[in-house]
């Protein structure tokens, strides 16, 4: 996993926004031609940034089934340690439950059968890991929006946190368990699903059985496997290392847009 620490990504959009704002406040400077050119450029950049921010509903690319990768790499945990997961696996996940709680009107505990009885979505998408590999897979699951509508988010909810069964034995301020989070834009995005199927079969253990997150516009580490709990919250303070995700606690970007 050490390779995950080696790559850093920077956005720099806020810098552009700040300089554009500064320039547009200085009318006198705009009389100078050189400054005007810079101003025009800054304005174009601002528009581009705004457009990027506005297209919150844009879909990630979906592929034909013929493009599904014959081998889909397994990364991170491939089999959670411990009695609890072993027992659930042995029972075919009949005793597994997804707890949905936090800032919701009606907390729920859902079985795999409950989730499979809800409306489903299937999508063939490309998974991009921060370590530099990609793979195309077919995912089937219940849209997260369907589950969130069932529990009813309270108006104070701003994020959704995903708690996982696997303990990685290292942490920066947390328990060592893998966890992740999304804002409500991505939580309600149509391609954000809680997947129980992969390539037409039950989700394999190595890929996160019985349930994993798919959030197709973000990098692989956001796609939490081995889900146990979905928690609505208004802040990450007091949750694991406080940065909204296992790798985020070690310095990774919280918004891992592709
Ligand atoms: N619970 C859990 N989820 C996880 C991880 C993990 O170690 N534990 N690794 C992440 C990373 S870095 C990637 S790239 C993907 C890998 O998913 P895959 O094993 O299905 O390829 O899962 C993500 N979700
Ligand atoms: Mo990854």
From TrEMBL:
Residues 94-234 form the Oxidoreductase molybdopterin-binding domain. This is Molybdopterin-dependent oxidoreductase. The lineage of its organism: Bacteria, Pseudomonadati, Pseudomonadota, Alphaproteobacteria, Hyphomicrobiales. It comes from the Bacteria. It comes from Microvirga terricola.
């Amino acid at each position: 996993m050490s390779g995950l620490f080696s790559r850093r990504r920077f956005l720099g959009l806020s810098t552009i926004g700040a300089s554009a704002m500064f320039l547009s406040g200085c009318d006198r400077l705009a009389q100078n031609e050189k400054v005007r050119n810079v101003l025009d450029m800054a304005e174009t950049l601002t528009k581009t940034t705004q457009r990027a921010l506005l297209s919150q509903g844009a879909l990630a690319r979906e592929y034909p089934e013929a493009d599904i990768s014959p081998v889909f790499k397994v990364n991170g945990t491939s089999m959670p340690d411990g009695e609890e997961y072993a027992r659930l696996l042995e029972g075919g996940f009949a005793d597994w439950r997804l707890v949905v709680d936090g800032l919701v009107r009606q907390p729920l505990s859902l079985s795999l059968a409950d989730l499979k009885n809800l409306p489903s979505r299937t999508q063939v998408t490309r998974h991009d890991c921060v370590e530099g590999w990609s793979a195309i897979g077919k995912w089937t699951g219940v849209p997260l929006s369907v589950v969130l509508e069932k529990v009813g988010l309270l108006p104070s909810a701003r994020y959704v946190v995903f708690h996982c069964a696997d303990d990685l034995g290292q942490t920066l301020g947390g328990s060592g368990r893998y966890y992740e989070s999304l804002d409500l834009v991505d939580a309600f995005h149509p391609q954000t699903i809680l997947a129980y199927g992969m390539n037409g079969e039950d989700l394999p253990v190595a890929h996160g059985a019985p349930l994993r997150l798919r959030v197709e516009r973000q990098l692989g580490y956001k796609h939490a496997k081995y889900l146990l709990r979905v928690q609505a919250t208004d802040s990450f303070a007091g949750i694991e290392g406080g940065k909204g995700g296992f790798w985020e606690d070690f310095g990774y970007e919280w918004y891992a847009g592709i």
